[in-house]
Structures are given as C-alpha cells and as structure tokens.
Amino acid sequence: MKRAHASPANIQQVTSTIIKELEDGMTTHDIYQHAFTLLNKIEHKAALHYSLRRAVFDLGPSGFPFEKLIAEILKNQGYETLTDQMVKGHCVEHEVDVIASKPDTLIMCEAKYHSQVGMKSDLKVMLYVKARFDDLHKATFKYDNAPNQLTEGWLVTNTKFTTSAVKYAECQGMKVVGWNYPVDGNLHDLIEKTKAFPLTCLHSLSDHDKKALLEKNVILCSTLAQDESLLTSLNLSEANIEAIKEEIELIDEKTS
Description:
Helices cover 47% and strands 16% of the residues. By secondary structure, it is an alpha/beta fold. The chain folds into 3 domains: 8-50; 64-194, 3-Layer(aba) Sandwich (Trna Endonuclease, Chain: A, domain 1); 197-252. The strands form 2 sheets. The chain has a 5-stranded mixed beta sheet, with helices on both faces. A two-stranded parallel sheet has the order 4-6. Helix 2 packs antiparallel against helix 3. The longest helix has 15 residues, at 28-42. The protein starts with 7 loop residues before the first helix and ends with a helix. The relative contact order is 0.12.
C-alpha cells in the first residue's frame, strides 16, 4: 500500500482491520482481495495503483499482451520498438519478444509471462536466456538509427526470480527485471515511471470488454484516453464511459 502511495492513516486503518480478521489457512490472494476492497472504499486512486500487479496478471492467458506492455514501456522512454521478431544470431535464428532501439542502443528482450503469482523464473531460464544472448551478441544487425550490434539483452518477468537465478544473473552481469527486482528499476517502477498502465487496471471496465480490447492489441489506459472511439465501439453507456475516463485520469495523475 505504501508503494501504491496510500496515505499513512489509510494504510493503518486497512492493516488494523485485516489483522483482526486473519484466520489460519487464508491465502495471500484472499488477504489482497480484502485489502483492496477496504482501500478502494476510502482511497480509490491508491487502490488503482495497489491493484497494478494483479492487472498485469490479467493481461493473460497468452504472453503476447505482456510483450506489448514491455514494448510500450520502452517506447515511452524514447525507443523505437518491434515485437515478436525472428532474428539471425551468429549460429542460429532466435524468436525475440521485444526489440528496442535508439541511435546509441540496441536492446533485445526475452519476456517471461506467468499467469500465477507463485511461479518464478529459475536458474534453467537464466542459462537458456544467457546462451541465446551470447549468440545474438556475436551477430550484426541492420535496424534504422541503431548500432549494428546488440548492446543490451534483457530478461523481463511479471513475477520473481529464484535465489540461484538472481545469483547467476548478478555474477554474469545480466540485465534482469522482475516485479520487485532490482530494488530500483523493477517492473513496478518502470510501469509507474513511464505511466504505461495496462487497461486491466480499470475497475469500471468489465472483464469482457477488457478482453475485447486486448484482442485488438489495445494494452494501455493512455491509448483509451487518446482514442475514445475504442470505448464507444464497445456499446457502453455514456455514464460507464465517463466513469472509465475518470479512472484513467485518476491513475495517470502525478503521485506525491
């Protein structure tokens, strides 16, 4: 709740209530749902940010919207981006989830999307990704306004890494980004910093309509704000559209 910028008084109120109601066998999902419901009643803006991690899970079940989210994060940082590309390495071809380029930087990203909170990227994943990027680092590329060799290889996941995976990545100098790793520059930070909020954050938008928009490759709240026709195409009421627009403005507001 602190990371969601909730006020200290509201954090104390929600925490005190939940502590009194804890029971043996309660899952973290149950606790989250209860905390969200309480917070949403007293501080809606903070609740929108508090639900951000769940919103990323709701991009599933395929990993493609997650790849698009990573591309949008990098695009909001000034990169030109491509997704789902076949790239010739030094030895073999590789399917690269996201490519981002600037005149002085060429980034290729491996996106590991998990649909469940407890799933982690382990050492096997690190070894596999390291081998792929080793092959790509030896190759030469031709992208407009970009270096002809790979400058950074990223592994990005929406969950966590095992301890051995982190140890290996740090030893090898690999760029890895998880929901809360590293301490600065993790996935949560990147979404907040670039305001690449997925539309699954919006509580005024039904699951059915979220799915319809995702199928059209619409990923971000900001896209809906820029093109209201996307909402009107869903045959929503004027009141519903206004509620959605208010939520988009609220989550996009600068936080203290």
